[in-house]
Amino acid sequence: MSDLDEPDIAALHKAVLREQKEPIEGREPVPIWMGAVFVVLIAWGGWYLGRYDARFDTQRADMQPLVTEVKSSPPSEPNTARGDAAMVERGAELFGGRCAACHQATGKGLPGVAPPLDGSEWVTGDPERTTRVVLHGLTGPIEVAGQPWNGAMPAWGATMTDAEVAAVLSYIRTAWSNDAGTVSLEDVKQVRDAHADRSAPWTADEL
Ligand code: HEC
After folding, report:
1. How many A from CA of 135 to the centre of ligand 1?
2. Does the pLDDT of residue 29 top 90, yes or no?
3. What is the mean pLDDT of residues 129-149?
4. Which of 67, 99, 162, 167 could tie 90 with a disulfide, CB 3.0–4.6 Å?
5. What is the residue with the minimal CA distance to atom 7 of ligand 1?
6. Distance CA 69, CA 42 (A)
7. Ligand 1 centroid to 31 CA: how many Å?
8. Is residue 137's pLDDT more than 90?
9. Where is average pLDDT lowest: 2-11, 43-52, 185-194?
10. How would residue 153 be classed by pLDDT, with cut points 50, 70 and 90?
């Protein structure tokens, strides 16, 4: 028997064995940079929910940074001549996060949404009344700077501390063209204690 009769099978298949499998299109492994992009996106998503979910409470308007109109107009400088600059500064921050979505960073309000705070006698008048509005909310027809309004202002007493309410009140009373005095933590505590069993929002008649 010669070599010609009996082909060398090992030699013949050498080439086939050496070849790699044909890659299948669309099954390539994910590139490392793309994995990194997903990690960053997921981390950002987690941060975003933590920052802006407002605990999924529809009563709270913590969505302010999403409202482009608000973003484009930062709160104006408060008139801090009366001192307590740090508290007013903290109040400005709180205002941006909790009130500006409705009352606007300019304090001018938004037709159909919320009345103005700038130039409002509700803000610069008796601080006790303003404190009650912020702690428990306000509903029904009111008049602000000569204009009739009929909406519902949410209550903040459950989600804001006395110090936070005092800060935000001090801010709105001194910001824009407003030039009233600041409100102290003790003032707010007094009002909160005096109306401890109040849970419904106030109406203009009650105040
Ligand atoms: C969901 C929208 C909304 C948010 C958020 C909101 N308000 Fe109001 N606010 C209103 C509406 C609506 C009224 C008018 C209520 C009425 O017509 O009885 C009002 C009324 C007021 C008033 C009395 C009227 C005036 O214009 O002076 C004050 C003071 C006030 N809000 C302060 C605040 C402060 C401080 C915050 C943040 C802690 C805040 N509001 C957050 C909607 C809102």
Report:
1. 11
2. no
3. 94
4. 167
5. 153
6. 27
7. 51
8. yes
9. 2-11
10. very high
Rounded Cα distance between 179 and 173, Å, is 6
Q: How far, in Å, is the centroid of ligand 1 from the Cα of 156?
A: 10
How many angstroms separate the CA atoms of 174 and 75, rounded?
12
Reported as a single tens digit per residue, the pLDDT across 80-94 is 444 478 899 999 999
Query: In the structure, which protein residues have their CB atom closer than 6 angstroms to any atom of ligand 1?
Result: 61, 98-99, 101-103, 114-117, 120, 122-123, 130, 133-134, 138-140, 142, 144, 149-154, 156, 168, 172
What's the burial of 132, exposed, middle or buried (CB within 10 Å: 0-12/13-18/19+)?
Answer: buried
Task: Give the torsion through C-alpha atoms of 53, 185, 128, 123, to 10 deg.
Answer: -60
Quick check: 106 and 175 in contact, CB under 8 A? no
Domains of the chain: 9-52 (no CATH), 63-194 (1.10.760.10)
Which pLDDT does position 154 carry in this prediction? 95
Where do we find the tokens 């409705």?
A: 102
Q: Which residues contact 196 (CB under 8 A, 6 or more apart)?
A: none
Nearest CA to ligand 1 atom 41: 99
This prediction's pTM: 0.67
Burial class of residue 199, CB neighbours in 10 A (0-12, 13-18, 19+): exposed
Under DSSP, is residue 178 helix (H, G, I), strand (E, B) or coil?
Answer: coil
Tokens 């709270």 belong to which residue? 60
Q: Indicate whether 69 pLDDT > 90.
A: no
